[in-house]
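> example.struct
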């Protein structure tokens, strides 16, 4: 897992923090998966003494799947690989930059004076 995470860090632009609305990359060894999820909520788990967070995620699968994982800050920010059910997991937010640029708007062609003053209708009267 450590080798895979190191390789991913070379090709994926990761963030250092995780916030609501972030896209996170989730890597699991068993079952083997590499999937994106949307962070829909982060709330403090007050039932635990140490600092744990309820990380609500929507997996971007078909159909989308919602789940909540309880993780420490280091786990939900990709600072450490952790285990769930004895299997290794890695979660880290991805830094997204807009790469699709909107084409510049073309100005509408100017109508000549005859067209501007004409109130001709496109409808035809049929008898």
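> example.seq
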């Amino acid at each position: 897992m450590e080798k895979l995470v190191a390789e991913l860090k070379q090709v994926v632009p990761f963030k250092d923090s995780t916030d609501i609305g972030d896209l996170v990359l989730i890597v699991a060894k068993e079952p083997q998966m590499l999937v994106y999820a949307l962070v829909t909520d982060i709330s403090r788990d007050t039932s635990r003494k140490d600092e744990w967070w309820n990380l609500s995620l929507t997996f971007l699968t078909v159909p989308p799947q919602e789940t909540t994982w309880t993780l420490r800050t280091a786990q939900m920010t990709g600072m450490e690989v952790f285990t769930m059910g004895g299997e290794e997991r890695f979660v880290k937010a991805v830094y997204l930059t807009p790469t699709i640029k909107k084409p510049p708007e073309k100005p509408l062609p100017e109508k000549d004076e005859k067209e501007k003053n004409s109130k001709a209708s496109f409808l035809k009267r049929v008898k």
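> remarks
The radius of gyration is 26 Å.
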